[in-house]
Write a structure and sequence with these properties.
Blueprint (H helix, E strand, L loop, with lengths): L3 E6 L6 H10 L1 E2 L4 E2 L13 H4 L1 H6 L3 E7 L7 H13 L4 E10 L2 E5 L5 H13 L9 H8 L5 H10 L12 E2 L7 H14 L5 E5 L1 E7 L7 E7 L8
Antiparallel strand pairs: 1-4, 1-9, 2-3, 5-6, 5-8, 6-7, 9-10
Amino acid sequence: MTARYGIYFAPRPTTSLWSKASAWLGRDAEDGQALERPMLPALEGLDLDAMTADPRGYGFHATLKAPFELAPGCTEDDLLAETSRLSGRIAPFTAPIAPAPLGPFLAFQIPGPSPEMHALHSLCVCTLDPFRAPMTDFDLARRRKAGLSPEQDAHMLKWGYPYVYEDFRFHMTLTGRIRDDQVRMKVLSALQNHFVAETGPTLFDNLAIFRQPDRASPFTVLGRFDFGEGTASF
């Protein structure tokens, strides 16, 4: 099986945002270790393992360039080196985050416009695309089941992911789909209380590469790269 790589923002392991969110998901993507979820009395009786199963496999992160296989002729070391160079051209910035609904999911989101985040996303999508292998027929068919717009389908064919540029929504996923509206709002309230100290201005200061060795395995952190002095042209 072929490995996949995602270009993400991930809070540093020393931050409370990383440690608390990883514990909520039940796994630390830095070292791959299972974690004990904190007790949230308001959610007693809910199957939180099932509710967090999908994001647990991906690890706590915000997608900047969606997972891809390496293009022919490109190596993992090549990707690491280019991501390091790119990170050095980006200046750190802050933006507020808070748990909120994203359709049937719950995720940390930026509640208003963030030109810096959209610029960072755009730069990652474009600059690192030469490392991406073309999508397989399987992945194309899987994505198209979501009912993409013509513009989203065109983005998928060009960039390997339909939700880019104008369709990009910053999010750090906390749950899988919660179809019951009342349950979703109950979980949201509990998470807003649990993460109250992590809600608000957040420093974005690095890119992380997550690696998945095969489709049946979880993602783990392959490398982190600090932002630099901000010489990138957006």
